[in-house]
Structure formats: structure tokens, C-alpha cells
Design goal:
Pfam families: LUD_dom. The chain has 213 residues and is of the alpha/beta class. It is built from 6 helices and 12 strands. The strands form 3 sheets. It has a 6-stranded parallel β-sheet with strand order 1-12-7-4-2-3, with helices on both faces. The longest helix has 14 residues.
């Protein structure tokens, strides 16, 4: 018996005494909470996202579509990156100005191989202003989850205002729960009992977010 079969068996046993006409899960919980806190303009929502990203120690940059390749090239050069991991669906123009070796997102890549990559560049699915959170869903321009968890430097491009929402409830409406969702609020970090902060524990030490208007 596989682990999957064992877990599903336990779920079935737990649900064995639930009446067939029981209230469906979607209606069992009252969700009458506010979809967002207050009212903001589009520009105000984007500004709040930038503020909260920075509060989480992400590095925020702003540019337009024409300036994006130059910004990415500059960030990689400042980092001294020579190898960059790219998802298969990433817009090639984004890295057109960067003098780096591109590394493909391969299923057979080992953690050690990914650890040797200097940087990774991805798009995102949605960005949440109130929490300063970037969400990846494994789409072709974002790649597998692990490519943003192993390399030490992640550049994430957010298209504004189209990909920016004010709150988590609004983000959930845009996301497919069946996809591999990764919620990122700043670079990976933790702290011990003395509150000494350590970055890069289970993800990149440096997260740079480029807001493209």
C-alpha cells in the first residue's frame, strides 16, 4: 500500500459517518469578512505593495517594459551573476541585455546543480499589496517551485497594475488551488530563540522585485 492510498483511506474512514446531505464545505463556513481593508486608488495599491515588500527586506525596483531588460541586466551585473536559471516560458527579451549563461529549468537537475546557479529570474501569478506577498503558481514563466527555493538570488517581475491586488481574498479568486502555489513574503528567513535573524534558510537570501508599469 502506498502512502497516498494510506492517507486517502484514513480520510474515507474519518468521513464515513458524515451524512450524504450534509452542508457542502463551500457553504459550511460563513465567509462574510471584508475583501479588503479600506479603499485605494490603483497607484495607492501598487505603492502599498512596494512599501510592504521593502518592509519584508525585499529590494524593490520600478521600471517600464522598455527599461526592464536593462534593469535585469544591471541587477545581475551588480550581483556578479554569471549563470541564471530561467523557466521555459520566460520572455526572452527580459534577459536580452544580460551577459550571462542561461540555465534551463530541467526536471533532472539535482539540488547541488541548482545551488551552483547564481540567480533565477521569474514572473509571478499575482502580488498582494496588504501583505507584501508574491505568489508563484508554477506557470511556464515561473517554472518549478524548487528553482526559486535553492538559488541564493531571485529576481521576480510583477506586471503592474494587472498582477497586483489589494488583499489575500482577492488573490485567492485569481489562483487555481490545484496548482503548486508558492507564497513569498520577502527573502527566506528565520530566527532563533534569541531573535537572531538568519536569511537563506529555505530559500534565497536576496529577493529583488521589479515592478513593471
Amino acid at each position: 500500500m502506498s502512502g497516498r492510498e494510506r492517507i486517502l483511506g484514513r480520510v474515507r474512514r474519518a468521513l464515513a459517518d458524515v451524512p450524504r446531505d450534509d452542508t457542502p464545505y463551500e457553504r459550511a463556513v460563513v465567509r462574510d469578512y471584508l475583501p479588503e481593508h479600506g479603499e485605494r486608488t490603483v497607484d495607492g495599491t501598487v505603492d502599498l505593495l512596494a512599501e510592504n515588500l521593502a518592509d519584508y527586506r525585499a529590494v524593490v525596483h520600478r521600471t517600464d517594459a522598455d527599461g526592464l531588460p536593462g534593469v535585469i541586466a544591471g541587477l545581475l551585473a551588480a550581483r556578479g551573476a554569471s549563470t541564471v536559471l530561467v523557466p521555459p516560458g520566460l520572455d526572452e527579451e527580459w534577459l536580452a541585455a544580460a551577459e550571462v549563461t542561461l540555465v534551463a529549468d530541467r526536471a533532472e537537475s539535482t539540488p547541488a546543480e541548482l545551488d551552483r546557479v547564481d540567480s533565477v529570474v521569474t514572473a509571478c501569478a499575482v502580488a498582494v499589496a496588504e501583505t507584501g506577498t508574491i505568489v508563484l503558481d508554477g506557470s511556464p514563466d515561473q517554472g518549478r517551485r524548487r528553482i526559486t527555493l535553492v538559488p541564493d538570488h531571485h529576481i521576480c517581475v510583477v506586471r503592474v497594475p494587472d498582477q497586483v491586488v489589494s488583499s489575500v481574498p482577492k488573490a485567492l479568486r485569481r489562483l487555481d488551488p490545484a496548482r503548486p502555489l508558492t507564497w513569498i513574503s520577502g527573502p527566506s528567513a528565520t530566527s532563533d530563540i534569541e531573535l537572531d535573524r538568519v536569511e537563506g534558510v529555505h530559500g534565497p537570501r536576496t529577493l529583488e522585485v521589479v515592478l513593471v508599469g
